[in-house]
Amino acid sequence: MRQKVIFEDLGIKSYQPTWEYQEAQLLKNTQIKSVAREKEEDVTLTATEHRLIMVEHTPVFTLGKNGKREHVLVSEEHLQKLGIEFFHINRGGDVTYHGLQQVVGYPILDLDKFKTDLGWYLRSLEQVIINVIADYGLIGERSPGETGVWLNPNDPFLARKICAMGIKCSRWITMHGFALNVNTDLSHFEYIVPCGIQGKTVTSLEKELGEKVDYEEVKNKIKAQFQLVFECDLV
Which architecture does CATH list for 3-228? Predict the structure, then answer.
């Protein structure tokens, strides 16, 4: 049965309230599943809700739970002068940047109703973005041992990441997600070691194509490919 996923576009929003909103949705769903397990009910029949949240964040660096603070190359005082917020958060992965003209997607899915396999989930998210950038003539690939979508990942001189990913999963409910650089200000990445990976750069659709890209068009393509890859319906 195709799952229905509630789609929400939050527009431009700072990081903290969006993070809190995700946490509230995660808590609501995990509590529903906890009650179902106590009653020994079929968890695939619970009233959990799937969501795909899209947002464009004001400038912020986020550091994953096992990330290294030294991968943020400047002090918090300097970040304040730059107008960039900083949060140490509970997703996997290291440090990344979110900013304007970057599509950030936060799927909150109950994988008990899809597939209880985090490897499958991450590869599926990557496939969504690979399909989207293919529409712009770009060949997105996976880099062994690293999440996200890359261009030329196997060439140490050309490897560059166009989409970062990091997730959290509790009772098979997901949160956090992906960040696709569209017309993003890439200069902010100079203040971090992106995803904690030395020697590899980041890129954007704008940089690769040599011109600004229609931001709303990219979001619509992501929505279409999300439904295709996850075999679901956005409502």
Answer: 2-Layer Sandwich (3.30)
